[in-house]
Amino acid sequence: MSEWLHDAGGAGFAHAYLIEEELYRGRSAFQEIRVIVNPDFGRMLVLDDAVQTSERDEFVYHEMLAHVPLVAHPAPRRLLIIGGGDGGLLEEALKHPLAEAVMVEIDREVVEVTRRFLPQIPGGAFDDPRTRLVIGDGIRYVSASAETFDVILVDSTDPKGPAVGLFSEAFYADVRRRLRPGGLAAVQSGSPLYQLELLRAVRAGLGKVFPVVSTYLATVPTYPGALWSFTIGATGGDPAQTPAEEVARRTAGFDLQYLTPAGFRAAFDLPPFLARDLGIAG
Amino acid sequence: MSEWLHDAGGAGFAHAYLIEEELYRGRSAFQEIRVIVNPDFGRMLVLDDAVQTSERDEFVYHEMLAHVPLVAHPAPRRLLIIGGGDGGLLEEALKHPLAEAVMVEIDREVVEVTRRFLPQIPGGAFDDPRTRLVIGDGIRYVSASAETFDVILVDSTDPKGPAVGLFSEAFYADVRRRLRPGGLAAVQSGSPLYQLELLRAVRAGLGKVFPVVSTYLATVPTYPGALWSFTIGATGGDPAQTPAEEVARRTAGFDLQYLTPAGFRAAFDLPPFLARDLGIAG
User: Fold this and answer.
1) Global pTM value
2) Alpha-carbon torsion (B268, B273, B274, B276), positive or negative
3) Contact yes or no for B263 and A271 at CB 8 A
């Protein structure tokens, strides 16, 4: 098999991956799910032709979406994850001394396919006694549930299909209502290169319900353009101000592969081209 | 025209660019030179199918290879650039109060094609009275010349064809001999993802002639994998220790689009996966 997968990052730009082997291909009620093997990135989970994660670089996205907000909260005990069906985010989050982690994933088959073909990404996270996996619509969950959380993480796909509502102001307002005092929410907010309007909308939407909105970046080699954004809406202090010593203390023993104590603060130090694009004074 | 350019970053990974229009295609004595137009990145300079620079993101690579070493030197007056035919690096470097900038580029046609089709990348750099452009072999130049410099920047292509010698220990020894007291050299040292052996060899080679070797990273969206490395060999202090205030003072008014004062230090803060791969204690 010498087919290539094209993961588009704009009208005329894509990451291309040689498909050495296709381990799985199926269509769930929500999307096409594939697991391919690539010589450079190993096994890769692909949803509707968009690479979600790979054996080789999964740690970047999962460490950055888990530990930055969890460390920015002084003492998170209850966590909610919306999406994140591959379990990599959950696995990182459970390194913190949480009491409970509820994960609401809409597509059961993503969880099942990952557990079968990419078991090292969730590790033992789905069997952790602190984990409660809910197969259902995260939008409905935050709207209907009476539960509250210290941290809410939104690990969504691109704003297409079932994920569209995860970028809406109504959803952010519901997320805000599900937070305990001092709580915060973090969302993947897309590519600052080819989804700038999305990132602007996320920041504006979160800004309507949170006093503090702060965007940070990471370099995810398997996402188109690699430069990727995350945005936190906080009810407490500015997450960017978390001291490096606090990051080091709270992540000691985590065996991180991407995030460093100094890198935490640096991730919020947006390059001027982007700060300008977002209307943030330099 | 709906052809795509594939810029390979490994056996099974490439960045793919739609070629909206091809403005130039020719073969020099050294390589195939193309200028294409892409809807996402604008005009792109392509040498032997490898993207060298684009209108949209040229500032990342050029700012990082120019200003990090130039600011790490306390007062650079004489600069040598090896390669860098598109002039983007020269343009950034000339923002500093240099007395002279000598640029040795092997391929005259790269300079000519860039000036014709991508004139905003060099800007007025080639006409700056401080610039001396030498069309010739940089390897021979550092070996034969008796001139000395405060900073030497090596802006090479991948180690193929004429660029192979720019990654050799003999070349680094000659570079070292061309430096004035307290001088330093910086080289583009490849992708930490798919050219790790190259990066290791660069660090080892520089380590044989420089007491201080320090690698830093930037995210260049149009280079495969985006994460890119640069390595400095220094005869003086550790470049990474340059205070943010010094960076701010020395780059004031430069209108930088990527580098920030805090980002200077952060660029040297390698993610643990890479520090481990390079055998650097965390």
Assistant:
1) 0.96
2) positive
3) yes
